[in-house]
Every structure is written in structure tokens, then in C-alpha cells.
Design goal:
Helix content: 10-25%
Order of helices and strands: HEEHEHEEEE
Largest sheet: 4 strands, antiparallel
Number of strands: 7
Shape: extended
Low-confidence stretches: 162-167
Distance between the termini: 61 Å
Number of helices: 3
Length: 178
């Protein structure tokens, strides 16, 4: 059916044709990321998915060191499973960190970039920190107080207990670490 006939039929039935919106345009230009100068400075994670003959989905987590990737070295880890939960990914990343050490996380932030991170040993003692990288290379740290991350439904959810318990003013301080 031609688009003209379709529009005529829609008009006769007092229907509206839904117009598709165009793609969002990027704001400004992005600066390319600086290449790492040595191994273990920046990692990339990629999730690959495929379907088995039986119809089940298979997912693969590939963790690659960006410096050694240009030299066509083997990835740090390839984890294949039918479902990769967040806890499974965290276990695999912990295993890589135990053998290779961790890359400097704050050095990867671009100027003006923010990293929001819960810090603590358990959900009851986690403090929510916001790291912001300044133009001079310093990193500002702002503590928003302690936070508790709970599922919104199911076991562990208590609507009378909000996630952010300390509603006092944020405590911010500067750090010279990059």
C-alpha cells in the first residue's frame, strides 16, 4: 500500500499518523580518549551475545587491557554463561584484580567527569562518595552520607526506611590524588 493511500485512509477514519522523531544530535565534539602508556592502565568490558542451536542465549563477557589490545594480545578474561549477573561479573573482575592489580580508576575520569561510588564493606555501612575531576588534575571528593541500596520489590524492601538516611549537608574535600 502506498503512503498516500495510507494517509487518505487515516484521514477518513480521523486517525493520526505517528511521525517518527529523528535521531538525537550529539552536542559539541568529543575529544578522543588518550591512549594508555603501559599495561594495566585502562580496561574495556564488552558483552557479546549469541543464540545456541537449542534457542538458548549465550553471553560472553570479554575484559581487555587497552594497551595490550593494540598488540593483539589475549584478553584478560572471557567469561561465557547463559546469564551473567552483576555478582558474577564482580567475582570475575575481583579474580582479575587479584592477579593483575587494578587500573587507576580516578585517572580515567575526564575533566569535569563525575564518579559516584558507594564505599564500605557491607550495605549497612556504605558511604556514598562523588568524585569530580578538576581542570588542574585534582580530584574533589564529596561525601553524601551513608546509603543503603535495597531492591525496590521483594525481600529486603522496607518502604518506611529510605535509602539515604543521613540528610545533612554533604561533606566535601579536595584531594591531590589523580
Amino acid at each position: 500500500m502506498s503512503h498516500k493511500k495510507l494517509l487518505r485512509l487515516y484521514r477518513e477514519e480521523n486517525l493520526r499518523v505517528r511521525r517518527r522523531r529523528g535521531r538525537k544530535q550529539a552536542m559539541g565534539t568529543r575529544a578522543p580518549m588518550a591512549l594508555p602508556q603501559g599495561p594495566n592502565q585502562r580496561w574495556s568490558l564488552d558483552f557479546v551475545s549469541d543464540t545456541l542451536i537449542s534457542g538458548r542465549r549465550m553471553r560472553i563477557l570479554a575484559v581487555v587491557d587497552d594497551f595490550t589490545r593494540a598488540r593483539r594480545c589475549a584478553p584478560l578474561a572471557l567469561v561465557a554463561d547463559t546469564s551473567l549477573s552483576g555478582a558474577h561479573v564482580a567475582r570475575e573482575l575481583d579474580a582479575i584484580i587479584a592477579t593483575r592489580g587494578r587500573p587507576p580508576l580516578l585517572a580515567q575520569l575526564r575533566v569535569g567527569g563525575r564518579l559516584v561510588m558507594p564505599i564500605g564493606l557491607s550495605t549497612a555501612t556504605e558511604h556514598l562518595h562523588v568524585y569530580t575531576k578538576q581542570a588542574d588534575g585534582r580530584v574533589d571528593v564529596c561525601s553524601l552520607g551513608w546509603a543503603m541500596f535495597v531492591p525496590l520489590t521483594g525481600v529486603g524492601f522496607t518502604p518506611d526506611r529510605p535509602a539515604l538516611m543521613d540528610r545533612s549537608t554533604p561533606r566535601c574535600f579536595r584531594s591531590d590524588a589523580t
